[in-house]
Design brief:
This protein has 802 residues and is α+β, with helices and mostly antiparallel strands. It folds into 3 domains: 18-242, no CATH class; 273-612, no CATH class; 653-800, no CATH class. A hairpin with a 5-residue loop joins β14 (534-541) and β15.
Length: 802
């Protein structure tokens, strides 16, 4: 007894045709549009458009590599491998050409630089406000994410032939946008993604027809395809209107998503609203000081208020000295005429503090306990990481020198500034004096009104008048009003809105005073850092025998304040924000509206500076601050949790699909490799039973094979002939005693047994069984609802039963 001969068309993709090539490029275009559409949802999150152009080029190169292989008639597996290679080449060409062979083949140095990009991209996301600067490290990861999305979509559409599931990876960028943008992903981007998804579904169907010549599109299939497309379009356009995030932002109002872990440091680009609205009160660092008053700690300085984007000044100036060799900058610190008072020591224990900027008390003369990876900028009196050093669990001591500043000294400095403003400020950078272009009229007008009202005639009197007006009852401290009224950020437009609404928080108060002072001819800048914090009640004995008082700082301690420049005194801080920090003694308004009289030396270290020699002997002999401690295990867990969560989600979404595809591939390989034709038929029947379970048409335990096949024929009219012939082949194999090798049981005669009416040549038994299963699977899919199709492919029931 011999197995029947069968006929079928030539296998798909063996010989490229013009139609096939055109269809492959059409599918390439569809995939490109579908992947790039959700990536565009990051507009407004990243500054400029360079990142989008590079991401588009990366996706195009990735998909083009697979398409070029596919149109040569090679397998989907090889085309996917080519796409992976295409992604690697595109990333190397754009970001690491100098380290690559021929500019496109990555080397170990290329990989090292790619790894070095991670902490830089992380810091950009952690410390920058939106839009984040478009720089290579961040662009690299956007391109990598876009390329991986393209690979996943290509695998689902071309490799696994389940294009409906491509909606899952396509939605990733939309979800990210809905989380990080206060106004959500935007219906425009959701709509573009929906259109791209529909184009992919259409392109995948055309590609399937092109690689299966003679395959007619059934009327039922066409009708069902239209219904699926309509349902998908409705879901992607209508559902976002009812869900938070896609139109209004998913995070709680005023909060944001941190993809690289939540920072515990201060945002140095003046988007402190996020920090201030953190009500958890978790201590991120603790400091001890021998000062009689709590201290302001600074992290960064913003000088260029005329820039479109406000950012720390030392990003441009650079770090002049290592942490062990502090020296003053020549810019604006001729403080020799200011008598020195006493030395102040401050010990900072960072605990879980995470930021590239370290908190520093002003007037730093020396720092002990920091490695060379930290660099000091004398122009801003700030400390910044030079070599991606970790800011966690640091314990360092800063020695500061506190000069006397009083009203008399400020009045004398103001007189010099009035006599010769050019020479008094000639050593300052222009960014400290320049006004923004198109400065809103309300800013200089408000400054003139305030000073006229106070009868201020000198720079000092004008500064005090501005401070006291902003602290008056006419202005209200609020962290929510700017958020609700749309000026929760920084820039001259935000300041103008604040002066109109007269409600905001420290960012608005400090920026308003700094800009108004500049309109009056007084150089200014903004300092970002921490207000004095709250006492933790701890007392520690330093090596000098004095009691050092402890203070805790949390994200809500974040603060910003202005510094104004006075000749011979340097940069002098003021406090215009009501209810925050302390008003400097030299800036307190006297009852008659004039300056306050001279006072005793102020011990607040946020004062103008001179830097004497370091005093390394004054080291504290106190234990680390308990409130700032955290375990290393906690840090490790928090660092890997996002990756673990992403892995679990991916396994949940694509794990069952991958296992089921592997299971089917194993059975198909068994069909082709079986030496006994009965084993080949048994494997085909096993796959038929699995398909039935996946689509909710499982064989009942009491049901015979014949009865089950008959029931399937009723449910699958388009695939009924293949089911019938596979049943006949299975029954013959079950009762046949002929065990001759399969290759001897494939006579070439008239078509009989398993066959397809549209066939163009005879097929061996293994090819016939493979083709029958393909037709039967298509029949199951055509007869199923969209929901059943999704479940059958994403979470196949056959995996739960063997």
């Amino acid at each position: 007894m011999s197995a029947p001969a069968v006929t079928r068309r030539t296998p798909a993709g063996r010989k490229p045709t013009r139609r096939n090539r055109g269809t492959q490029w059409l599918l390439f275009t569809a995939l490109l549009v579908a992947v790039v559409a959700p990536v565009s949802g990051l507009w407004g999150v990243i500054d400029g458009r360079l990142w989008f152009d590079q991401a588009t080029v990366t996706v195009a190169g990735t998909l083009a590599a697979g398409t070029l292989v596919r149109i040569r008639g090679l397998s989907a597996g090889l085309s996917f491998t080519a796409s992976v290679a295409g992604l690697i080449v595109m990333l190397t060409l754009q970001f690491f050409p100098s380290t690559a062979v021929l500019g496109v083949i990555p080397t170990a140095e290329s990989v090292r630089r790619a790894l070095d990009f991670y902490p830089q991209a992380r810091d950009a996301v952690l410390v920058q406000a939106q839009p984040v600067l478009s720089e290579d490290p961040l662009i690299f990861f956007i391109c990598l994410a876009a390329g991986l999305t393209a690979l996943m979509v290509y695998l689902l559409v071309v490799g696994l032939r389940v294009p409906a599931l491509s909606a899952l990876p396509l939605s990733v960028f939309l979800v990210i946008s809905s989380l990080v943008k206060t106004d959500g992903a935007g219906l425009l981007h959701v709509g573009l993604t929906a259109i791209g998804y529909l184009v992919v579904l259409a392109g995948a169907r055309l590609e399937r027809r092109a690689t299966s010549p003679g395959a007619a599109l059934r009327t039922g299939v066409l009708r069902q395809g239209v219904l699926i497309a309509a349902a998908a379009l409705t879901l992607m356009l209508v559902v976002p209107l009812a869900l938070p995030g896609f139109s209004q932002g998913l995070m709680p109002q005023g909060q944001r998503l941190y993809l690289f872990g939540k920072p515990s440091g201060v945002n140095p680009v003046l988007n402190l609203g996020v920090n201030l609205r953190d009500r958890l009160g978790v201590t991120t660092l603790t400091y001890y000081t021998d000062s009689s008053e709590p201290l302001y700690l600074r992290t960064a300085v913003i000088s260029d208020l005329g820039a479109k984007r406000w950012e720390p000044s030392d990003l441009e100036v650079g770090r002049d000295h290592s942490a062990e060799n502090l020296a003053p900058s020549p810019d604006g610190f001729p403080a020799q005429s200011v008598p020195r008072t006493r030395t102040v020591h401050t010990r900072v224990v960072t605990g879980n503090y995470q930021s590239p900027w370290l908190p520093m008390p002003r007037e730093a003369a020396s720092v002990t306990g920091l490695a060379q990876e930290w660099g000091y900028n004398g122009g801003t009196d700030t400390m910044f990481s030079q070599a991606e050093a970790s800011s966690r669990k640091l314990d360092y001591t800063v020695t500061s020198q506190v000069p006397v500043i009083d009203a008399a000294a400020l009045e004398a400095s103001s007189a010099r500034l009035a006599r010769d403003p050019g020479s008094a400020t000639d050593r300052l950078p222009k960014t400290s004096t320049d006004l923004p272009r198109n400065l809103p009229k309300i800013i200089p007008d408000t400054a003139r009104q305030i000073t006229r009202k106070a009868h201020a005639t000198t720079a000092y009197e004008e500064a005090v008048a501005l401070q006291e007006e902003l602290r008056s009852v006419d202005y209200t401290y609020s962290e929510q009003t700017p958020l609700e009224q749309g000026y929760d950020g920084n820039g001259v437009g935000v300041v103008a809105a604040f002066l109109k609404q007269k409600s905001g928080y420290c960012t608005h108060y400090s920026a308003a005073m700094a800009l108004m002072a500049r309109t009056l001819g007084v150089p200014s800048r903004i300092v970002v850092g921490y207000a004095p914090g709250r006492s933790n009640g701890a007392q520690a004995l330093g090596s000098d025998g004095k009691q050092w008082s402890g203070y805790d700082l949390s994200p809500s301690s974040a603060h910003a304040w202005p510094e104004l420049f006075f000749p011979d005194l340097g940069w002098v801080p003021f406090e215009p924000t009501p209810g925050r920090g302390t008003t400097p003694s030299y800036a307190s308004d006297s009852p008659d509206g004039g300056p306050a009289p001279s006072q005793a030396p102020d011990t607040d270290p946020t004062r103008a500076r001179t830097i004497p020699d370091a005093n390394p002997s004054a080291e504290p002999s106190i234990p680390p601050a308990a409130g700032a401690q955290s375990s290393g295990n906690d840090d490790g867990i928090s660092a890997v949790m996002p990756a673990l969560l992403a892995l679990v989600v991916l396994l949940g979404l694509f794990g069952p699909l991958g296992i089921r595809r592997w299971q089917r591939s194993r059975r198909i390989r068994s069909i082709h490799r079986a030496t006994d034709w009965r084993d080949a038929v048994a494997s085909a029947w096993e796959e038929l039973l699995a398909l039935g379970r996946d689509y909710g048409l499982a064989q009942d335990p009491q049901e015979t094979d014949a009865a089950y096949a008959s029931r399937l024929q009723d449910h699958l009219p388009d695939a009924a002939p293949e089911v019938q012939r596979l049943r006949e082949a299975f029954e013959r194999a079950s009762f046949s005693l002929d065990a001759q090798p399969r290759r001897q049981l494939v006579p070439r005669g008239p078509a009989s047994g398993i066959h397809r009416p549209r066939a163009s040549r005879e097929l061996a038994l293994d090819e016939a069984l493979d083709a029958a299963l393909t037709d039967i699977e298509q029949g199951f899919s055509d007869a199923a609802s969209p929901g059943r199709q999704f479940l059958a492919r994403a979470w196949p029931a056959s995996l739960l039963r063997r």
